[in-house]
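Appendix B. Extra example for self-study. Work through it before the problem class; the solution is given directly after the inputs so you can check yourself.
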Amino acid sequence: MQIDLVFTHIPITDEKLSDRTVVMVDVLRTSTTICVALANGAKEIIPVDGVPAAMQLLGNLSRDNVLLCGEKEGKLIEGFDLGNSPSDYETEIIKGKSLIFNTTNGSVALTKMKTAKSAIVCSFVNITACAEFIAGKDDHILIVCAGNNRQFNLEDAVCGGMLVNILQKKIGREMEMNDGTEAATIIYHKYKDKCLQMLKHSFHGKYLMSLGLGKDLNFCAKIDSCNFVPVYSEGVVKLDMH
Amino acid sequence: MQIDLVFTHIPITDEKLSDRTVVMVDVLRTSTTICVALANGAKEIIPVDGVPAAMQLLGNLSRDNVLLCGEKEGKLIEGFDLGNSPSDYETEIIKGKSLIFNTTNGSVALTKMKTAKSAIVCSFVNITACAEFIAGKDDHILIVCAGNNRQFNLEDAVCGGMLVNILQKKIGREMEMNDGTEAATIIYHKYKDKCLQMLKHSFHGKYLMSLGLGKDLNFCAKIDSCNFVPVYSEGVVKLDMH
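Solution. Structure tokens for the complete assembly:
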């Protein structure tokens, strides 16, 4: 098994993905919020790469069953129904709905994975389920850390490294790694028992706390609170039914 | 002191640099080769961001005192005088010459630093000199790892982390770090006594060995074999005369 990891979605281009199982990691907060939304009954998530794309898609859908969700600079976007806090995605609000999802990093990263052989959404909250999904593939895996504004971030690197670590224990044999995978596993070992502490220490974690969203970090640090894998296919993210 | 680090030059834009001292790190091999060329008497290095830019510049200069240098995919470019192996830059070939320098990552990264308050070139071979240069500034420092083809690479991360480590010991007080700086120092501690081993293990190190350029790795691993700082200013790299 070859397992590569990149620290931002910038190097991702379509042609590299057709033979890959791709894992999108955006701990704070897109991956976590997607997991929570699906756990609480959302029908599907439709990631988009900007507000214009979100509005265009909204015009094509029946408004009754659709919610506009996401953030800009961490905050609710004007005219949108929901922000990007996992705790906002309560069953009574989202059950059965299609969620158009526009975020700065994670949703953009997902839209770049349309041509992947298979693409899944990973965070701390569903990391063991993701490792099990991947372990079933004899494949070329690419972990895409969404990063923050085209740059490396700590939390996605630690999550990517943890995923590789769990996977390595599961498959019990050597994996070929690129430099990014190697680095992520080193960074993970520094923080492995200190997930929440690491989130509070990270640049984006501090920024969210400055916005009064510190509670989101607790949510995002709950390792394995979900036991399923969101799969991105044909432009929408749904629960894996396999 | 605020010390930020990015793992590729992709997020670098001019407007971020005017109040920064910027350090360009491209261990394999641009930073190392620039150090060796200046140590061996080259008059100056003129980094460019592609073969067309190199040819245009050549047309404006007297061919007698100019050499075309650099690589594409690690190899000598057709029609160029020298490749990117440090050992090619011998005194009898380069003394007093201006070197037009075109490489995949490092020279491109340098051309993005034109507006920086101050920009220097760092590799393992001159890392303590670079730390001393920076320690003299009460400044906002940005370390730019050139990376490899828009992606993270191990050797530049380890070098960046080592630079931060030396600097921290020199200035003896807390530094503010971004997530990239923090990660680089963690990665550095994994490899600190195994510089050559790390280069041989890295993706690009393996690639250079596959081209028969393994000797370059020995050159690039010689910590502090130079005791000066190449400074990039007004479009050219020269020795720091301060």
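Self-check: Chain A has a mean pLDDT of 95. If your reasoning did not lead you there, revisit section 3.
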